[in-house]
Structure formats: C-alpha cells, structure tokens
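Blinded run. Sample ID left blank on purpose so nobody reads anything into the name before looking at the predicted structure. Input follows.
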Amino acid sequence: MIAIHIQIPSTRGAMLGESLSRHRSNEAVGKTGEETRRAIKRIICFAIASACAFGLPACKPAPVPAPAPSQQERVVVGELNKDGRLIFWTIDAFDHEEPFVLSHEDYGVILINEGDEKTPKAIYKYASQRGDTTRIVSTSSFEEFKALVNQIPKGSALAVFATCSVPRHWGLKESVVQQFNKTLEASGLSLVERGVCYCPSGK
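Blinded prediction complete.
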C-alpha cells in the first residue's frame, strides 16, 4: 500500500480537503466490493492530479530491487561457479536455490539433519578443492567423516558452514553435535566459520 502525504497552503488545502470530502461521500454511498475499490482509485487519482495542479513535486516511483546474485547464476552441485570455486551443496531458499561454495578455503564441512526432530538423521558433508581436483562426500558415517578430516594437512584452513536462523543440524541429538565439534577442534586445522543466508531474493 502506498501512503501519499501532501502539504498544501491553508486556503487551497481547505478547498482541496472540502472537495475530497464531498468526493469520498458521494463515491462511498451505496458502493461495495469492486465499486468501492474503483471509488478509492478515483480518489487517489484526484489527489495526485490536485497535487500537480498546486505545483507540488511529482512522486518518484520506488526503485525495483535487482535480482539476487543467486538468481543470475546457474547453480549445479559439483560444478564451479563464475569465480571458479566449487559448489558442494544447495539449500531451498523459497524462490531459488542458495549455493554453498568453497569460496575462500580449500576444505569445507557442514553437519546436517536430513530427518526431523522425531527421527533425526545425521549427514556429514565434506568438500575439497585443490587445484583442478575437487571432491564432495556426503555420508551418514561419523567414522568416515572423521577420517576425511584427519587427511587434511595440519594447519590448513577448514571452512565450517552454517546458515542464518535455524542451524542445519537442528533436531540432532546434542551428543552428535558435540562429537562433530570436538573432532574439528582436535583436528589441528584452522577453523573458519562461513555463514550462508537463505532468505528469499530481494529480502
């Protein structure tokens, strides 16, 4: 809904207010539904026309937000984005798929609950990009995930991904989340938090 605020000199303002009042009264009598909506549109048009007649500045239309970058790019898991970095997962962002990308680090992980709170299912995602070699692993085995983390050269940067609002591991047992975190803390790697926002485009 657009609110129009108009300031008019007192004499002319009184004339316009009186005219608008008569117009609203005449249009509102006996009109319902579609007729009422048409009457309101005519009142708005009348107000805008009156504003122009008094030499007031014209209203400027609100700028239309540009499409979100994620809408402009082709998002395919396993492929590289326009910057040559690996897309290793995507999440439903209501009106588009939001990618998870190894944008800075060569390694990245995230813990996901692919079930729900009643029947949780832990999934460990691991991704790596070293030169032209890329790898994506999605496993329900903690031991396999731990082995992958231990293969990363000590001192390397490891991106630990998370999302805004609700974490992807929501609903998993606290013991599972703690086991994941402790493995990363004991890995000898430089942990870097990487947040991904999955709000709808334009929000």
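Unblinding after everyone has recorded impressions. The chain has a mean pLDDT of 77.
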